[in-house]
Amino acid sequence: IIDLALLFVAIGLFYLSKYSVNKKILTFFTFAFAIQIFADTAHTYLLSKGKYVPGGIIDPLWILPLLMIGLAAIYARNYSDETVETVFITKQEYDIFPYLGAFVLFISIMLQNKTQTLGTLRIGLFLVMVMITIRQITMLKVNRNLLRRLLIKNEELAKSEERYRHLIEISPNAITVDIDEKIVFMNKAGLDLLGTESLEKIIGESVYDFVDINHFQITQFRRQKASENNEFIERYEYPIKRFDGQMIYVESRVAKINYNGEKAYLAVTQDVTYRKKSEEIIKQMAYFDELTGLPNRAMFHKQIIEQIENARDNNSQAAVLFIDLDRFKLINDTMGHSFGDVFLKNVSKRMVQILDQDGMIYRFGGDEFCVFLEKADQKKATMVAQKIIDGFSEKFYIENREFYSTPSIGISFYPKDGDDEDSLIKHADMAMYKAKRHGGNNYQLYTNVLSLENSSKMEMENAIRKAIVNQEFLIHYQPKVNLYNGDLIGLEALIRWKHPNWGLVSPLQFISIAEETGLINPIGQWILQEACMQLKKWHNVGFSTLCMAVNISPRQFQDEHFINMVKNVLQEIQLDPKYLQLEITESVMNNMKESLNILCELKQLGVKISIDDFGTGYSSLSYLKYLPIDEIKIDKSFVDDIHTNKKDEAIVEAIIDMGHHLQVNVTAEGIETEQQYLILKEHRCHVGQGYFFSKPLPSAEVEQLFY
Ligand code: C2E
Ligand code: MG
Ligand code: MG
User: Fold this and answer.
1) What is the DSSP letter of 206?
2) pLDDT for 261
3) Of all protein residues, whose CA lies closest to atom 37 belonging to ligand 1?
4) What residues flank ion ligand 3 with Cβ within 5 A?
5) With contact defined as beta carbons under 8 Å apart, do 424 and 418 qualify?
6) Which of 14, 290, 488, 685 is the most exposed place for a label (fewest CB within 10 A)?
7) For residue 657, what are the contacts with CB-CB under 8 A and spacing of at least 6?
């Protein structure tokens, strides 16, 4: 009977081991009991057959179970006392049935068998009853314990649920739960985000109801993608429309959850409008020019790479137009930077207007702009360039004044002139300088011939620096003649550059770069010294009435050391200032106040002032009367057509009249023919200069004309 009981225990333990973390310990027990039962059974069998011999193989089998139980005990020490509970929830009322059956069996056997002797069966039954009762009592105890624990757990669960609910309610993030994309829960922050107080308006609605219609598909796609992951990893952004109509940007994360037993999605959403706006601003700052609002150089680089790729794929041409404003520096220098800024804004607006749909315009910085033309051959590119030049022929009105601006445009083509953005820009830039050297207000195509024409700005600048050091500059002198009696009045000093490779370089080709780089100051000083020295020599040999005219660039004129420099040169050479004539351009009048001061100081020195290229500048003639000037030089462009164009003749006549009126000398430049000379004389122009009398010549040659 005891062995049977052990068998029950062994089987019981075996099954229990399935649910226990102490599986190994219970297995040890199971085996221990099994061996015990086996040993007992074998012993009983051998004994009944009379074959049992003490000290046989059965005996050690009794010790083995004890060893195993001991082993289990050692093993158990390494384990924490945590056990996994197996909960069998059964109704206690039904528990009683098996015991009831056993009890009935016990009573009936007791009563049926009237013999008073304690039969084996009765003892067995009695023991079974006792054991069953003991088991029942322990089971009840265990059950009650489990039940109590369950209740505590339930309570804890309710508390933590409460806590979570609270957390969700006070969360600053919008939290939404949806089943099959229909909203079933939304917290307060969610309602705030949508700008409503009523939950009824929300419950049952689709999660996409508030998504901006244009972003519906992409949002749906992103949400589905994000929800594939269970851990709130993927974020997705989209714009939504609030109840008040306002558009805001939100960012969501979504995860699968179980909501009241159903498969649902929990979304946590945040308002990121502010961040989005900042990003927008940063992007704007990085890719757009602050002053003009045009896309900038960085944007150009970014887009041109894509465009070149496109052109490559489609096997098409493309063009880059590099645009630089002529004489913008002058406006900036004479009118101040804030005016320059306004000017640039106006120019940008005009550019956008002119280009319209033709291409995209970018501001490269300063007065440099770039245009990219897709699918553009030479015909299209030059057409656009001409359109830009034509568009600039109209004046700008800024602060109630009229201004002209002209562009110089360089063009390079993909793939002919370069197949990457750097070479295309560089070559368009080089072509632009070529346009500058051609006098501005024109366009030039890049040609890959190595020459002065194609030298880059930097090469040019370096060459000018070298020229100063190597003394590559020289001066030619052009006579100024009295138109009435043919007398030589004076000479104009005109710079020449003899470059070792490029030959004789015209001032038109390098003066603007020298001005831009400031190199004009040392060059200008050298010319002044050289020309004054030459004049002094001529005075000393008897031509003591000759005057010398020296061109002064606006940049020099504004240099703070300029007046002192002139003074020093005159003193050093001991030249009477009245023989020196400084030719300035009309543009200095843009900044009347400052210019007037400088002019007055120069006047005090005793030098003469003349306005060169008169009629081409931006100035208003009415200012002339306020300036202490001695001479105006009518620009060659008016003289050119004086004999064919009545309008030009009228202009020249008016300028001469005004000169007389203001009591200043009037000199006509660029007289090439006798006809021009006669007309000018007829209009009482006193002095003339031009190829008709003489080209600019080196000092030795011009001397021949003195006699
Ligand atoms: P500018 O001061 O108006 O000089 C007159 C220009 O017209 C000179 O060109 C002269 O060679 C040219 N010229 C004179 N008569 C005739 C003619 O009958 N027909 C034609 N087609 N041209 C004639 P150049 O020497 O090439 O100088 C160009 C400009 O470069 C000058 O215009 C002046 O603004 C500037 N420049 C020349 N030398 C200097 C200088 O030393 N300093 C500065 N700052 N500028 C200079
Ligand atoms: Mg001149
Ligand atoms: Mg001139």
Assistant:
1) B
2) 85
3) 494
4) 612-613, 669
5) yes
6) 290
7) none
pLDDT for 73 equals: 84
Distance 667 CA to ligand 3 centre (A): 10
Kindly report, residue by residue over 318-377, the tens digit of the pLDDT. Answer: 999 999 998 888 788 778 888 899 999 999 999 999 988 888 899 988 899 999 999 999
Amino acid residing at 505 = V
DSSP, collapsed to helix, strand or coil, labels residue 592 as: helix
CB 591 within 8 A of CB 629: no
610 Cβ closer than 6 Å to some ligand 1 atom: no
Peptide bond into 507 cis (omega under 30): no
Supply the pLDDT for residue 86.
Answer: 46
CA-proximal residue: ligand 1, atom 23 (nearest): 670
Closest CA to 385 of 340, 434, 351, 362: 351
Q: Which of 551, 580, 638, 691 to mutate to test the pocket of ligand 1 (most atoms within 8 A of CB)?
A: 551
Using the CB atoms, write b or e for 15-46: b if 16+ within 10 Å: eebeebebeebbbbbbbbbbbbbebbeebeee
Give yes or no for a contact between 551 and 508, defined as CB atoms under 8 angstroms apart: no
Strands (DSSP E) found in 334-447: 360-365, 368-374, 396-398, 401-403, 407-414, 442-445
Task: Identify the bridge partners of residue 414 per DSSP, sorted by sequence position.
Answer: 318
Rounded to the nearest whole angstrom, what is the distance from the C-alpha of residue 606 to the centroid of ligand 1? Answer: 24
CB 442 within 8 A of CB 385: no
Residues of the chain with pLDDT under 70: 20-21, 79-99, 101, 112-118, 230, 232, 448-456, 590, 617-622
**HSE-up of residue 657 (Cα within 13 Å, Cβ side):** 6
Q: How many CB atoms lie within 10 A of CB 411?
A: 27
Gap between the terminal Cα atoms of the chain: 158
Say how far apart CA 675 and CA 401 lie, in whole Å: 37
Whole-number Å distance between alpha carbons of 642 and 540: 39
- What Rg do the C-alpha atoms of the chain give, in angstroms? 53
Q: How far is CA 119 from the centre of its chain?
A: 102
Q: Which of 329, 480, 494 to mutate to test the pocket of ligand 1 (most atoms within 8 A of CB)?
A: 494
3-class secondary structure, 274: helix
* Nearest-angstrom CA–CA distance, 436 and 368: 13
Minimal CA–CA distance to 667: which of 695, 694, 703, 630? Answer: 630
Q: In the chain, what is the greatest distance between 2 CA atoms, to the nearest angstrom?
A: 177
